[in-house]
Write a structure and sequence with these properties.
Largest sheet: 6 strands, mixed
Number of helices: 12
Strand content: 15-25%
Radius of gyration: 22 Å
Structural class: alpha+beta
Number of domains: 2
Number of strands: 10
Helix content: 40-55%
Distance between the termini: 71 Å
């Protein structure tokens, strides 16, 4: 059995309808922990003792996910900020703060007017994209929490959409043109996809195709659909297996090295070196 922070147990399996806050509280190995472990074991150990803070980007991503993938739940969970007339800075007033507190006490998440409009526009852009719309129609299962075990280690994952041998993630990005291969590589999305696919396989749901639906976080909210190539999935699987082996070694030894435990050679970038060579050739 795997338990969330408030003590309510979730068994190994695939669970729809788990709120993101509860998912993040599950004490198990997940993609975000693997990403930190990839930096260094020292960073990983530090992460375990730190509270998770929700950034503006994470809050926007969570709202866009729900608006695009579970619109009926979005309308019930989110609400526009209250309107307080007659003030230059209405958000600083007592009336505004009390109205927001009342909405939050009722279980609603309050979004500023411009943010709510942005979230709805992004969700609309996703469904207006012909390929993204077809992919989501093919994958009707949404926001699934997966819990499994890997050699006795509790593991977790969350797949955004699943169905008919395909699965994938919805991602917001600051620059759609750089999403593949730059963002997929830099942020470890290839490794995350392999991790989730392994979880699905262990839980009896084999998928042969993994997709990303990526959307620019700035207007006009352009959208791209990407199929992750098999070689990238294979490399991602090898990468997380290496990380899990390294974690086991650290747990056994009690040693948690940082990124650079040995002496490093300081150098300069190729761009600087090439510029210097070019100047010498001109001279």
């Amino acid at each position: 059995m795997l338990a969330i922070q408030d003590g309510q147990p979730y068994p190994v399996g695939i669970h729809p309808g788990v709120p993101m806050s509860e998912y993040l509280a599950i004490d198990a190995m997940g993609a975000s922990r693997l990403g930190t472990l990839a930096i260094s074991p020292k960073h990983y150990q530090h992460l375990l003792g730190e509270p998770r803070w929700e950034t503006a980007a994470l809050s926007l991503g969570t709202a866009v996910h729900m608006a695009a993938l579970q619109p009926e739940l979005f309308e019930a969970a989110y609400v526009m900020e209250p309107s307080v007339e007659g003030y230059d800075k209405p958000r600083a007033t007592k009336a505004y703060k009390e109205a927001v507190a009342a909405l939050e006490a009722g279980g609603r998440t309050v979004l500023k007017r411009d943010v709510l409009a942005k979230v709805r526009a992004m969700a609309a852009a996703i469904h207006a994209h012909p390929v993204a719309a077809k992919l989501l129609a093919r994958c009707p299962e949404r926001e699934l929490t997966m819990l499994w075990e890997n050699e006795g280690r509790a593991c977790r994952g969350r797949v955004d959409f699943l169905g008919n041998g395909a699965a994938g993630d919805l991602k917001t990005t600051r620059n759609l043109a750089l999403f593949s291969p730059h963002v997929v590589t830099k942020l470890g999305y290839y490794r995350d996809a392999a991790w989730y696919r392994d979880g699905l396989r262990r839980l009896g749901r084999d998928v042969s195709l993994w997709f990303f639906i990526a959307i620019d976080s700035a207007a006009p909210y352009d959208v791209g659909v990407y199929e992750l190539v098999p070689d990238a999935l294979g490399f991602g699987e090898m990468h997380y297996e290496v990380l899990l082996t390294r974690l086991a070694e650290c747990e056994a030894s009690g040693e948690w090295p940082g990124m650079f435990p040995a002496i490093q050679m300081a150098t300069i970038t190729d761009a600087v070196a090439n510029a210097m060579i070019a100047e010498e050739e001109v001279a």
